[in-house]
């Protein structure tokens, strides 16, 4: 009788351990399936992003090329820098200030003109610097 109790207890323990191992295996299989599914989702997403990035990069390259041709930095395909006769002017707001020559012949360089300057007849003039990049903000 003692032997049958020991054998029954061993069988019960083995059955419980078997169930636990089956649950662990089932959980691992589900995790692997989820991981494979997530891998597939990430793979597809990464390739779609790559395709979008490639298309965006191509569009940006074409726009830079078009702007270079429009500003005369590059000749277009037929060698004409005016892009079919139409050239867009792009102002350079950060260029060096021009040297001004007053009627006396002296050279004066205005780095920061005052908002109000005097005219030759003594009247006050409101002078606005078109080269100030802060005007557009």
UniProtKB/TrEMBL annotation:
Compositional bias of kind Polar residues: 77-101, 114-127
Record-level Gene Ontology MF annotations: DNA-binding transcription factor activity
One GO term describing the cellular component: nucleus
Residue segments, region Disordered: 77-137
The protein's name in its UniProt record: Uncharacterized protein
Organism expressing this protein natively: Ensete ventricosum (Abyssinian banana)
